[in-house]
Prior knowledge:
The structure holds 2 protein chains of 2 kinds.
Chain A: H1 2-16, H2 22-40, H3 44-67, H4 69-76, H5 79-85, H6 90-120, H7 127-153, H8 159-185, H9 191-220
Chain B: E1 7-16, E2 19-29, E3 34-38, H1 45-53, E4 60-65, E5 81-84, H2 96-106, H3 111-120, H4 136-149, E6 154-158, H5 166-181, E7 185-189, E8 199-203
Helix pairs in contact in B: 2-4, 3-4
Amino acid sequence: MNIFLKLILKDIRSTFSGGSDAGAAILFYLLAIIMFPLGFGSDNQLLAQVASGAIWMAALFSSMLSLDRVFRSDYEDGTLEQMVLSGISLEFIIITKCFSHWLTNGLPIIILSPIMAIIIGLDIQYCWILIMALLLGTPSLTLIGAAPAALSCTVGKGGVIITMVVLPLMLPILILGSGAITAEIKGMGGIGHLYVLAAIFPIASVIVPFLASKAIRLGWE
Amino acid sequence: MTNIPLIEAQEISFERGGREIASNINILLNKGEVYFVKGKNGCGKTTFLRCLLGFIPISSGKILWYGKEIFPIFNKGSPRVAWLGHLNALKSIMSVKDNLNFYADIWKVKKNIVKDAIQFLSFDDYLEFPVSWLSAGEKRRLSLIRLIFCPVKIWLLDEPSSFLDELNRNKLKIIMQNHINSGGSIICATHDSVDISNAKTLLLD
């Protein structure tokens, strides 16, 4: 447990001590949502309809933008090798890295989402389901993106490859997440969507550490 | 119990990109021994060390660590080997102090041991600098500091003297000699001729 905190602290420190994409990814999330009203015009009703989709799209792209750096810097400078040789299992390292990615990307997205909802015209009474959906969905976004991120850091520049591989995998989360809010607005209740969304997380958290560690070990060969 | 070799490689062969680059290599590393791995560029010195660590699978033969077939990269718990590869494993945006403290923390090393290592390589004045401000030689020295305080008996070094100046090459020799004298063992891939007592040489070609 102690070592878990130390690894997270190191990740967060090296994320925030300048020159990283973490802040940029959050800024992207803000700007992308602000762009929507500009693109769609000031029709409040239309905006309210696309609001949930807009927020989810922005969250998904923001997560994807920042995923590339999750393993890359530690893989390229040899830190990952040193940590594994220090007797910390690679799967454990991957879990801590996913967790710190969520802390620096998923969590700010959730915290900012009520403000974003108001900006884009989503009715305040649906904010709770938006937050719930993001709370259940963003950890899975991180996890599902982590395996391709691990694969891409072993093949050099991977920004575009990640996008190609990750987008189809993230579709269910996007559909369920924004579907929950739409269903709630239409009065059908979005709880069902949330249940399925919640079910993705445990499955991903079991499978991803093994896939990602396999990818990194292949890179070392 | 005491005479189990630390590392034993039996008849190992390895390949890169489908091409076999070395075959039937034997090595037996005991307590207090030094092996220098020598050979021309591309003969597989780095690959050999990475095979020993378990990063690269061998195509035939057997590698035993403390008499068991468990590679360091799969070993859980405390570290068994210090590895100084081509990569310095330093976070360039973190300060020198934070970089060293991170490893001191996960290896559970006492503060005064770290301090002594820093003093030996005269790095006191750089502690607050971010690593990105250091030169290639200084980064190498920083990884040597980490090597000194790593609480393990076995060192695997891959061209440790690269980027180092004359003074620090001598210091490196002293560091290696001290490690041997205190009962440690070293496998070192290098092009230099380092004179250390009782050193064995493994020639790859």
